[in-house]
Amino acid sequence: MNTRTAGGILLTGALLFSLSHASYASTPIKAEVTKATSSSRQTSSEVNVGGTWSTEKLEVGQSFTVSTVPTEGGAPFKWAASFPFVLNDGTRIGECIANEATLTCKVTEVPETYVDKTDVSGTWWARARLQDAAVGTDEGTITLNGEVARKLIWGDAQGTGTCTNDCTNPVHYEYARPENLKFGWTNDNNTVGWAIKWIVTPGTEYVVKDFDTPLGTSVKCTKSGEWDPATTETIESTRVDANTIKFTAPADSKVCITYPPEQMRVPEGQSSVTNHAEVNSLKLEATTTLRSNGGTDGSGSDKPNPPVTPEPEPSKPSEPTPEPSRPSEPTPEPSKPSNPTPEPSVTPNPEPSKPPTPNPEPSKPSEPTPGPSVTPDPKPSPEPSKPSETPKPSETPKKTEDDPTPSPEKPQENSPKTPVPTSLARTGSDSAPFFIGTGLLTAGLGAFVIRRMAGGKK
Question: Residue-wise over 183-210: b if at least 16 C-beta within 10 A, else e?
């Protein structure tokens, strides 16, 4: 195999390894311990721990672990059993595995109904039993994902942080009370385990029979009020049949106990089971109801980001498009009519000031009148034939027409606004005949003088 092939294989292997881990890589579920109780300070007594868990979204591989800090002799308590990691509606999302003193709840599957759900949260709780390793201590430690989460006072049956039951001494071995009884408990596989305990007289032979389950041959007898290993003796009995044994109680013994090795299954559709036993004709009976050793619940939001969909609602604020109603401001368009405001032809006001200038102009036409008086020069023109020059005087009237007409036109525009135009009223179109008549008269006088001068020369 060449180096390229080997390198490719290694690279492929590394990639597959990373992908396989990436698919399960996840941050731990956020969990809390909210309560912990200890029913007594004797070993085998119950310990209950519970809390909450939550995650933004369920993912395969998420988990949280609840454990304890071991003592020199080992774990102070051990979890009773494993149980499923489920939600309120019974949907199973994983397992809570009890391994001695460690309980790990892990998501192993995400149902389709929860693929899009968010803010998934719920509660959890688990049952444990106090162990011999806790003997001589007053409290234990509960850890969550390796971090100290809570101190538990042994015998704190209420979870208040103070011992309320069996508080005279630190943790001790289980009481060996002198009593005749049969009792049972629930195992992690929903089966029931049994025990038979009875008061004994040292040196007496006892025949023990269980009518419902086979018996083992091991029997323990104690000389004290506790099942202390230092004062407890283990005896091997004689088997009579699968369900029967016999033995002789040792010296100084007070109480003996035996534990049938087989677990009893609860019949389909039932939640409890009853067991019958007999010790030297003493009938013992007990009924045990299945108890859960732990459990979870939880639920999530049906619509992960409903607030995101309402984003269109914020678009409603865009309805401030009514701001375009500001275009309704075109109401100022009526201001266009305000353009008539320029009607305050205030600007023409200065123009009326111009009329005073034209006032002298009309005085100029008076100048031509002396003109004809100059023409009656005593020197008569010898050529009478030049009366054709009469058009020249007509030119002079043109000047009078040109000069006076423009000047009166300007005042005419402004005349209505000033009283001055009253004296110039004749400069308009009505005064035109006057000037024309004056011109004609002047021209006639000129022609008459010329003719007289011509006649004189003759």
Answer: ebbbbeebbbbbbbbbebeeeeebebbb
Q: Which residues contact 166 (CB under 8 A, 6 or more apart)?
A: 40, 41, 42, 155
- Residue 122: its H or E element: strand 118-130
Q: Both tokens of residue 130?
A: 């106090």
Cα–Cα dist 85/452, whole Å:
147
Residue 409, CB-side half-sphere exposure with 13 Å CA sphere: 6
Could you please report the per-residue DSSP string of 289-309? Answer: E---SEEE--EEESSS-TTTT
> For residue 302, is it left (φ>0), alpha (ψ between -120 and 50) or beta?
alpha
Distance CA 84, CA 94 (A): 6
CB 129 within 8 A of CB 46: yes
pLDDT for res 257: 97
Which residue has 């020369």 as its token pair? 457
Rounded distance, CA 449 to CA 142, Å? 148
Q: What is the mean pLDDT of the chain?
A: 74
| Whole-prediction pTM | 0.59
Alpha helices in 192-279 (DSSP H): none
Q: Could you give the CA distance from residue 55 to residue 63 in angstroms, rounded to a whole number? A: 10
Q: Residue 201: which of 256, 249, 258 has the closest Cα?
A: 249
* DSSP-H helix ranges across 205-328: 312-315
Q: What is the pLDDT confidence band of residue 344, given thresholds at 50, 70 and 90?
A: very low
The Cα–Cα gap between 154 and 437 comes to 142
